[in-house]
Design a protein that fits this description.
Elements: H1 3-11, E1 25-32, E2 37-39, H2 41-54, E3 56-68, E4 71-82, E5 88-100, E6 106-113, H3 115-118, H4 126-137, H5 140-144
Parallel strand pairs: 1-6
Antiparallel strand pairs: 1-2, 3-4, 4-5, 5-6
């Protein structure tokens, strides 16, 4: 399975398209993100079906890819409109680590994203607490917004 086909699948995913995971994932594929850890197509499909029930207009955009043999890293942004606690357009940034079985299907999928920055900081109440902790635990330069850039892009 070409990686470009998988990327297109994610970037055009719809509620009905969730049924197509079997075209790209092994029957016993492993999936883990900050909230879920499951094995098997039915469980993976359930996670993405749940996503469509929880948020409006979810959309993935893969911005970078690194491929090495039987594995890949996909850098992505996830755009959506939250329903709670306040409806608003949101963007989360993350990376997916994928490993492929001999038949080319994904048999390992691990998502990495910062729940604190990308989710909890956006919530009223909890966000206030998280921003306070960030100020208390961060360096003075980080708290003031100053950058000690190495020239690398964020």
């Amino acid at each position: 399975m070409p990686l470009d086909d998988l990327i297109h699948f994610y970037q055009s995913l719809t509620p009905d398209g969730v049924r197509r995971f079997g075209e790209f994932y092994s029957a016993d594929a492993y999936f883990k993100d900050p909230f879920n850890e499951v094995r098997g197509l039915a469980a993976i499909e359930a996670i993405f079906a749940h996503m469509f029930r929880q948020v409006d207009a979810p959309r993935f955009c893969v911005t970078e890819q690194v491929v090495d043999g039987g594995a890949a890293m996909l850098v992505w942004t996830f755009h959506f409109r939250s329903r709670w606690p306040l409806a608003a357009d949101r963007v989360m940034r993350g990376v997916s680590h994928l490993r492929f079985a001999a038949d080319g299907k994904v048999d390992y999928h691990r998502d990495y994203w910062d729940t604190g920055e990308e989710l909890y900081l956006q919530l009223p109440g909890l966000g206030l607490l998280m921003r306070g902790l960030r100020r208390a635990l961060g360096t003075p330069a980080a708290a003031s917004g100053q950058s000690h850039s190495t020239g690398a892009k964020p």
